[in-house]
């Protein structure tokens, strides 16, 4: 999910990524979005995930690869290797598409419709490609298209890269959530909220470059709290999205932390890779774990 304040929680959930220039990747004495917890006989590393990257963002900083090599078990938000592609197609079709003659225009407000038509004209996308997509599904697609326009590839994402390495090395792989659980959060939104999220994404996309720069600075400094605060601006500007933010981030944080606690008790070393947005803030994964464990942020 793209961590920009104007794109709204749903778009953040779509991307949950942070961009940073490769010439900063190997700077000295810079904090990483990587934390370490030592508990008796095992070590748990927690890595803020970047779900889309460019080729020149590799190789990864040494401490990330050291954490990966140390881990006996790797844990990702979703086990990408176990996803049933046919099941995904069916879920997206049944939950994310209209049955003709119904269409997205039956549910969009006049303002969102106008913004959507403007976007389609600018991007030269045929209306028939989006007519039967529900607003939450279209928001996902727009996020993916904007990523592509900027040259970022999900197949180069940090989570996919590390999971492929884990498979190659025969490491055990677990997941914090299932694909169905993640998608359900989006399709469960009311139509009014879906419409608003899409409208925010379309209306404020011109601010994307500026807001990305703010997020780059926060990432470069390893400042998860600042990244989270920047994201919260979307909720302060659009208070109707507060409940969505709670479901997309805060409630999931608690569930993830409960799983992480169990990993800290089983005697093996873990690397947990979860979306960067989950790390910061007073109810973020790091603060929640710090109530009971000593959590050290790593640097390089």
Describe the structure.
There is one protein chain. By secondary structure, the protein is an alpha/beta fold. The chain is built from twelve helices and six strands. A six-stranded mixed β-sheet has the order 4-3-5-2-1-6.
Task: Give the secondary structure arrangement, pairings included.
Layout: H1 8-15, E1 31-39, E2 42-49, H2 62-70, E3 73-76, H3 85-96, H4 110-123, H5 135-150, H6 158-169, E4 172-175, H7 179-187, H8 191-203, H9 208-220, H10 224-237, H11 242-263, E5 270-275, H12 285-290, E6 295-299
Parallel strand pairs: 2-5, 3-4, 3-5
Antiparallel strand pairs: 1-2, 1-6
Helix pairs in contact: 1-5, 1-8, 4-8, 5-8, 9-10
- Count of β-strands: 6
Elements, N to C (H/E): HEEHEHHHHEHHHHHEHE
* Rg over alpha carbons: 19 Å
Helical percent range? 40-55%
Query: What is the tally of helical segments?
Result: 12
Classify the beta-strand content into a percent band. 5-15%
Strand line-up in the sheet with most strands: 4-3-5-2-1-6
Question: How would you summarize what this structure contains?
Answer:
The protein is 49% helix and 12% strand. It is globular. With 300 residues, the protein is an alpha/beta fold.
Identify the notable features of this structure and list them briefly.
300 residues; disordered N terminus; 6-stranded mixed beta sheet; 12 helices; globular; alpha/beta
């Amino acid at each position: 999910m793209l961590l920009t304040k104007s794109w709204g929680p749903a778009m953040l959930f779509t991307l949950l990524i942070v961009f940073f220039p490769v010439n900063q990747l190997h700077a000295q004495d810079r904090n990483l979005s990587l934390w370490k917890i030592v508990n008796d006989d095992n070590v748990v590393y927690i890595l803020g995930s970047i779900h889309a990257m460019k080729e020149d963002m590799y190789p990864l900083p040494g401490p990330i690869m050291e954490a990966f090599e140390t881990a006996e078990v790797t844990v990702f938000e979703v086990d990408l290797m176990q996803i049933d592609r046919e099941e995904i197609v069916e879920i997206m079709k049944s939950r994310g598409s209209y049955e003709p003659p119904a269409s997205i225009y039956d549910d969009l407000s006049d303002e969102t419709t106008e913004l959507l038509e403007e976007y389609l004209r600018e991007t030269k996308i045929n209306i028939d490609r989006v007519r039967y997509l529900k607003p939450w599904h279209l928001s996902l697609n727009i996020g993916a298209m904007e990523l592509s326009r900027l040259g970022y590839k999900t197949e180069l994402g940090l989570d996919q890269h590390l999971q492929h390495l884990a498979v190659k090395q025969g490491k055990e792989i677990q997941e914090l959530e299932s694909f169905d659980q993640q998608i359900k959060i989006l399709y469960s939104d009311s139509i009014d909220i879906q419409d608003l999220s899409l409208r925010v994404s379309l209306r404020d996309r011109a601010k994307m470059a500026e807001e990305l720069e703010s997020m780059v600075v926060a990432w470069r400094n390893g400042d998860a709290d600042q990244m989270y605060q920047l994201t919260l601006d979307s909720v302060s500007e659009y208070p109707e999205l507060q409940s969505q933010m709670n479901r997309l981030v805060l409630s999931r944080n608690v569930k993830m932390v409960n799983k992480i606690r169990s990993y800290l008790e089983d005697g093996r070393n873990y690397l947990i890779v979860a979306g960067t947005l989950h790390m910061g803030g007073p109810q973020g994964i790091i603060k929640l774990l710090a109530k009971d464990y000593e959590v050290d942020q790593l640097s390089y």
